[in-house]
Amino acid sequence: MQNLTVLGTGVLGSQIIFQAAYSGKQVVAYDLSDEILGKLAERWEYLKPLYLRDLPDATPEKLDAAVARIRTSSDLADALADADLVIEAVPERLDIKQSTWERVGELAPAKTIFATNSSTLLPSDIAPFTGRPEKFLALHFANEVWKFNVGEVMGHEGTDPAVFEAVAQFAEEIGMVPIRIHKEQPGYVLNSLLVPFLNAGARLLVRGVATPEDIDKTWKIATGAPTGPFEIYDVVGMMTPYQLGASSEDPEMQEFAAHIKREYIDKGWLGKGAGRGFYDYSAK
């Protein structure tokens, strides 16, 4: 699968686009408007020094070649016209994902395989809306995909085993370590472990137990971990925890969502990629 279309150019969508292009794939980046897509050039300039820092084989020439393999489009039919694989990275709401896949299913060529990058939702809740459930599954990436390079592949009962293996092979081709999930699991392996940890940090904050800095410091000193929960929130970006918290039935997670909207999102502090979240990265 050489031709990839990525739906959504947010924090993780843009990383998937760039990593696939860096690995030699031709990539179409789709989003709702040309205004949104116009910001991607700045995003590539943000990612390039991170690749140079973290990947021994990265060179300016290879990074420029990756950018040259990326085409943008705000026309969904155009974006899908020659796609071998579509990876969806739209907001983490079931209704948005279902309606997105309905449109994609109507427009994509018969050859196209469909994958969601959803971090919490099950493929079986989306598959019926695609029109080709046998070609639909999940391919989930960790944030900072070039460095934390797992690709969790999770189908549903109706996923064609050959499609499952083709997507696992694609993940390997773009530098991921394929993790085959044998049974549907909300949160896969990674987020089944990570989300309770992040939620614990959020609860300590909203209960007034300690500051984000001291919560992170405690975890890092006591365990030797490189990052604490609020540093991880900054890498993920504020919108995902806000959306998950706002839709949660847990009052403390709802309170956390309201807190980060009021204190961070409304001020434009959207996380590390934006220069500021719980921490200020503007001086780095």
Secondary-structure topology with pairs:
Layout: E1 3-7, H1 11-22, E2 26-30, H2 34-37, H3 40-54, H4 60-68, E3 70-73, H5 76-80, E4 85-88, H6 94-107, E5 113-116, E6 136-141, E7 150-154, H7 161-173, E8 177-181, H8 190-206, H9 212-223, H10 229-236, H11 239-246, H12 251-263
Parallel strand pairs: 1-2, 1-4, 2-3, 4-5, 5-6, 7-8
Antiparallel strand pairs: 6-7
Question: What can you tell me about this protein's structure?
Answer:
With 284 residues, the protein is of the alpha/beta class. It has helices at residues 11-22, 34-37, 40-54, 60-68, 76-80, 94-107, 161-173, 190-206, 212-223, 229-236, 239-246, 251-263; strands at residues 3-7, 26-30, 70-73, 85-88, 113-116, 136-141, 150-154, 177-181. It contains twelve helices and eight strands. An eight-stranded mixed beta sheet has the order 3-2-1-4-5-6-7-8. Helix 1 links the parallel strand 1 (3-7) and strand 2 (26-30). Helix 8 (190-206) packs across helix 10 (229-236). The protein starts with a strand and ends in a 21-residue tail after the last helix.
Briefly note the structural class of the backbone. Answer: alpha/beta
Number of strands: 8
What's the quaternary structure here? single chain
Question: What proportion strand?
Answer: 5-15%
Given the structure, what is the number of helices?
12
> What are the low-pLDDT stretches, counting only 5+ consecutive residues below 50?
none
Helicity, as a percent range: 40-55%
Choose one word for the global shape: globular
- Strand order, sheet with most strands: 3-2-1-4-5-6-7-8
Question: How is the biggest beta sheet arranged?
Answer: 8 strands, mixed
Task: Calculate the terminal CA-CA distance, rounded to whole Å.
Answer: 38 Å
Specify Rg, calculated over alpha carbons: 19 Å
Q: SSE string, helix = H, strand = E?
A: EHEHHHEHEHEEEHEHHHHH
In round numbers, the mean pLDDT is: 96
Pfam families: 3HCDH, 3HCDH_N
Keywords: Fatty acid metabolism, Lipid metabolism, NAD, Oxidoreductase
Organism: Leucobacter chromiireducens subsp. chromiireducens
GO molecular function, one term: (3S)-3-hydroxyacyl-CoA dehydrogenase (NAD+) activity
